[in-house]
Write the structure tokens for this entry.
Amino acid sequence: MKVSIAIAAALLVALLAGCQTTPEPPKPAPQPVAPVPEPEPVKAAPTVPDGPPPGSPAARTQAQQLLRQAADSLNAGNEDKGRTEVAEALRLDPDSKLAQCLNRGIKADPEQVLGRQSTSYTVRPGETLGRIAQRALGDPCEFYLLARYNNIRVPQQLAGGQVIRIPGRVALAAPDAPAAKPQPDLPAGRAQPVPTIAKPPTEPSAPPSAEPAERAEPVAAPKPAPPAPAPAPNTRAEIERHQRAALAAFRRQDLDTAIREWDQVIALDPGNELARARRQEAIELDRRIKQIK
């Protein structure tokens, strides 16, 4: 009996040993994963405009070339192209007087700059708006402003015999001719006085018996005064500077400054009849304004 119990216990132990499973080896602990850094945003390179830096000698040279092209474009009536060329020239050389002048001619209101009062002028054969602007406004670069003042879309098509408006009350004289002197204003309804030339008195005839009168020596006609010499180139530049200053002052109704600037023009160029006429116009306008006040 005891043997059976022992055998049964041994069988039970063997059975239990067979039922045990081999334990699985422990799994390795997961290793921490390092965070992947996000890529830095790529910074865009600053845009650098093509060409030389504004204000440099190379930029000024390039601006001069653009301004010549702009003048040709405006003269041919291509305002959009000329506007773009002038804008680029101003970017390259902001202090360029020519660029500022052409830009004003494109954008400014002509009647606000030049005034509404004007006189008629008949264009001579071969004349250009640049030459007329030189004589009437003191600077040929004002040609496009003068073109817009006259609603001329293509300045180079100006023809001899064409009648245009010139700003101001004084008529512009023909080339190489003296300017007309301004006439004083007269009350309404009164005609302009016409000077009368007195006839020389008739000498009474001598009686037959009288001695023949001694003949007077013929008086030589006075020689015409020689023309004033042309101003030197540096003086001409100074004259044009004062002319521009006078016209600018006259447009903004600063008449005292305009008169002083025209005095400078006359001092440098005594034969400048147009400057004398413009000065007289400023004096008359100043007198009227003071009378109204």
In short: The longest strand covers residues 118-122. Strands lie at 118-122, 163-167.
